[in-house]
């Protein structure tokens, strides 16, 4: 028998949407920052000891969410997991294979012990909306409800799960509306958990949010989009965040799949090697700018890790290393620094403010993002390129401020000391030019905030 799960589910408050509708928190009021990793093929391709190795690594780096698929993308209905088990009997969603789900049971427990949330996708989207991929399409509105209800009942007592529908597919495709199928799957989850679950939707790429199709669906709690890997550098994810946050009813939103570290740039329909790969600098730019625009978090991804590339697997899209080697790539550490920075200050109810930077935020590769705390006691600006900026400080009433630079590459802070606040103040990054990205932090000198070293 293969199982690592021990003991009972940890006594821990569930995750809920915050009061303003734009953030996440636990039921006891503790704010939650979504720092995800795309471990898409986790259950399909790894053994339990390998899953434990992966979770240990991600927890140590500060990740809070692992996104993984139950019915996997790459022939997940016909190709068994490493233990020889398929997820469904006869590819029937109403006949789950208990032996397959014991691996997921153990993973849920291991994640809980490491204080990790699992963003579970009941199925990859090709099982509902084929469009491309292996499929087959096996879901309709009837069996989608039954499958959702079975999943919800099995995991109703586990508090470290967020459900993610969609799986890289739009809910409406080529004139066909698949929303009734997703609606019933969500209803099954809700009915089985008595409404005590959060549900998100992960659409296809192109920087198009789930809000484009699902804004009025009452089962959806969290919007997602993916700025992705096929539209080059500096996809304006910040615009998608800000657009979502203007909608009613209010929902949190996040980039659930920005450009993966070490993913080839624009590999479709044919990759030009001269385009190169997305590296850690590209990851930082996309993650910081969407979060600073008001997202409730962001999901990192590595091209070898989502597919768990190893000697056992066929290479997909020019992956340049295996998953074990990829776990300690620079970007994986650096997104943890982002979480550390955001959580060092009150971060629910942050206010994205384009007026903070005199002269505007810039465009594309030079685009900055800026926000302030809702009580106007601090502000942060992300600069993707080192330079001098002028800040409009009239939002803050304090006569004296503290200012410091935060290095997204290293997580280190460079203090500028106490300064007299002026309505307009100039600041110059410690280093200048491309790949010298920095965060400027200004705050009321009389406030006692956490000091980052």
From TrEMBL:
Q: Where is the Apiosidase-like catalytic domain?
A: 21-348
Which Pfam family name is an example for this entry? Answer: Apiosidase
What does the UniProt keyword field contain? Hydrolase
Q: Under the GO molecular function aspect, what terms does this record hold?
A: hydrolase activity
Putative collagen-binding domain segment(s)? 352-443
Record keywords: Hydrolase included? yes
> The organism sits in which domain of life?
Bacteria
Keyword Thylakoid belongs to the record: no
InterPro entries to which the protein is assigned, alphabetical: Apiosidase-like_cat_dom (IPR025277), Collagen-bd_put (IPR024749), GH (IPR017853)
What name does the UniProt record give this protein? Glycoside hydrolase family 140 protein
């Amino acid at each position: 028998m293969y199982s690592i799960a021990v003991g009972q589910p940890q006594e821990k408050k569930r995750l809920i949407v915050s009061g303003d509708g734009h953030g996440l928190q636990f039921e006891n009021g503790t704010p939650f920052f979504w720092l995800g990793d795309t471990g898409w093929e986790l259950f399909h391709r790894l053994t339990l000891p390998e899953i434990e190795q992966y979770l240990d690594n991600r927890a140590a780096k500060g990740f809070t969410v692992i996104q993984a698929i139950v019915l996997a993308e790459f022939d997940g209905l016909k190709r068994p997991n490493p233990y020889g088990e398929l997820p469904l009997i006869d590819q029937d969603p109403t006949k789950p294979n208990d032996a397959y789900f014991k691996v997921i049971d153990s993973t849920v427990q291991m994640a809980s012990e490491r204080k990790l949330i699992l963003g579970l996708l009941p199925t990859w989207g090709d099982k509902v909306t084929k469009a491309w991929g292996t499929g087959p399409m096996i879901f309709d509105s009837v069996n989608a409800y039954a499958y959702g209800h079975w999943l919800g009942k099995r995991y109703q007592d586990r508090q470290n799960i967020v459900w993610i529908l969609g799986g890289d597919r739009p809910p409406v495709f080529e004139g066909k509306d698949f929303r009734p199928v997703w609606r019933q799957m969500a209803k099954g989850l809700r009915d089985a958990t008595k409404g005590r679950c959060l549900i998100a939707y992960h659409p296809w790429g192109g920087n198009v949010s789930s809000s484009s199709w699902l804004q009025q669906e009452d089962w959806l709690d969290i919007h997602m989009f993916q700025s992705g890997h096929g539209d080059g550098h500096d996809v304006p994810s910040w615009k998608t965040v800000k657009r979502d946050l203007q909608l009613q009813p209010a929902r949190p939103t996040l980039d659930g799949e920005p450009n993966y570290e070490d993913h080839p740039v624009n590999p479709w329909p044919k990759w030009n090697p001269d385009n190169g790969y997305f590296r850690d600098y590209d990851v930082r730019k996309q993650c910081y700018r969407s979060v600073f625009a008001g997202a409730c978090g962001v999901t990192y991804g590595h091209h070898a890790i989502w597919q768990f590339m190893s000697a056992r697997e066929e290479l997909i899209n020019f992956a340049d290393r295996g998953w074990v080697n990829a776990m300690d790539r620079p970007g994986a550490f650096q997104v943890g620094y982002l979480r550390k920075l955001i959580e060092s200050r009150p971060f629910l109810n942050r206010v994205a403010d384009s007026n903070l930077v005199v002269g505007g935020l810039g465009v594309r590769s030079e685009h900055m993002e800026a926000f302030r705390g809702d009580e106007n006691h601090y502000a942060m600006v992300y600069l993707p390129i080192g330079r001098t900026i002028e800040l409009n400080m009239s939002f803050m009433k304090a006569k004296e401020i503290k200012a410091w630079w935060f290095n997204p590459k290293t997580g280190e802070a460079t203090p500028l000391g106490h300064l007299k606040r002026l309505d307009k103040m100039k600041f110059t990054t410690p280093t200048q030019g491309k790949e010298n990205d920095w965060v400027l932090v200004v705050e009321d000198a009389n406030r006692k905030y956490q000091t980052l070293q």
